[in-house]
User: Fold these one by one.
Assistant:
Number 1:
Amino acid sequence: MYEKLGNTAKYIQSIKKVTPQVGVVLGSGLGAFVDRIEDPTVIPYSEIPGFYDCTVEGHTGRLILGKVKGVEVAVLQGRIHAYEGHPMEDIVFPTRVLAILGIETLLLTNAAGGINKAYAPGDLVIIEDHINMMAKNPLIGPNIAELGPRFPDMTQAYNPEVREILATSAQKIGLKLHTGVYAGMLGPTYETPAEVKMMGICGADMVGMSTVPESIAANHLGIKVGGISCITNMAAGIQGKKLSHDDIKEQAVRVMNDFSNLLEEAIEKIGSMN
Ligand code: HPA
């Protein structure tokens, strides 16, 4: 696995010699952020060894190398999910490749259903922590010591400094942000109202079907993680409305401008961290 990761990193470096400082994963419907990337080099996942093409509508499946506000970035436009049938090690493969390319910070973004009743569709939330409800973990199996320790600490899975940068960036651009706990479900069904109620009691503020595997893999690698959820809908049973992927994609598109402004501002600040 370690060799395979290295070969993929070499392939990417053969297309463009890069040393990205910040990695970004763009979730469902949030791909338009790529318009903010300066001097972009675009590589479709289908051309990258070890990467899988995205099968879900709203996920494009391209790696984009370039700069945002002068900071070198590697942006994954679209991700694969466990519900598509991929093993966890394939889901976190792109995250690990970005680590080998040199990223120090990873910004994970997603569309999520709001459990916290103070949220509304269109709100953006800084992820402060997660609950892994997938009954899977990308680190199961022999530990790859070159990547990280057998038992990684997850006390600050979402780096406090990065969270602070996201909060101050939002303030600067006049954007109201919440902070909350993300529950990661396997999917592909949306949750039942009873499941949503249980997760609320357990401390979750929002729910989605991604992010947790990449966050775990990045923490294993010692990379600072930041997370932003776009509340595309209230979770099942909160408003009594039925959920549809089309509505969810539409809502993500509506917040695109705020979302892109926030990411741009945060990346600039992260670029001057340390
Ligand atoms: N549940 C799970 N995943 C989601 C949701 C939801 O309500 N909204 C967007 N992604």
Number 2:
Amino acid sequence: MDRITLESPLDMHLHLRDGDTLTLVAPLSAADFAGAVVMPNLVPPIDALDALDAYRARIAVACDTARFSPWLTLFFRAYSHDELAAARRQIIGVKLYPEGVTTNSAGGVRDLRGIDATLEHLEALGIPLLVHGETHGFVMDREREFLPVYRRLARQFPRLTIVMEHITTREAVELLGEYDNLHATITLHHLLITLDDVAGGLLQPHLFCKPIAKRPEDREALLHAALTGHPRVMFGSDSAPHPRSAKEAAGCAAGVFSAPVALPALAELFADRDVLPMLQRFVSDNARAIYRVTPPLRRITLERVPWRVPDHYGAVVPFGAGTTLAWQVTARA
Ligand code: NCD
Ligand code: ZN
């Protein structure tokens, strides 16, 4: 197969930022995707409805939201039942960051044992909980150390839809099998790279992200889940633009900017493994079933035609900059 048309591809974990970066990156996602879950880790974080509404309006200026649905999230804090009831129709979920684990998470949760009241409201109102699941432990162990938290939440709140964001380990994939209310997003870069690609040769700041890429066996487990269309696994790019000056620096910011290369690189990956038809599940169907969303109808056609990834988009360097991918988007309807 040298060609595929995807129906309404979705990116279930995306950083659109704000200001000039929003203006730069939103049209790139809107070109290829019919919808995206937009992360709330702005400065200050989006943790109130007025800020959420204002952000939605800025996104609508930056791109065509009739063709691209931005599904917004609130930054987790202690919310009352009334606050969440008022927000329910305007959000797709609430995103929990442990304090300080990643970019712009200083206002995150310090004590994960003190959040049960808010989780009860989320469960009662049917609002999904999205989680950045890392501890403050040794960098390679942070996700694995967090898994007991997922177990407790899944058990204690059995009707709460929990999404383990950007999973990177074999153990996290295996945990999906233990609880029906656990789901996961997987990024493009974690399907393609390991820690070796980040730091095994010359240091590659554009591959540095949280969670850090892990071992080959972890990548294989992620690949297996994605390529076989695991029904509780969704594509979420975690595309996280930072200006080149913040990446090529002593003290490199965490985040990989992958939105404009995501679909061509995924098509190449699935085609190379002879499972191209499974891509529709991974980039759209599973997410629609899990979140019960109906995106705008879009048809994005990809073909096996070489495409050189741009060196930069404005001040931001994309994943795979300057390399040639075997596939490209050839029609956007
Ligand atoms: C993200 C960012 O830059 O906002 N960075 C990252 O390395 N993934 C935050 C996040 O999702 O952890
Ligand atoms: Zn993210």
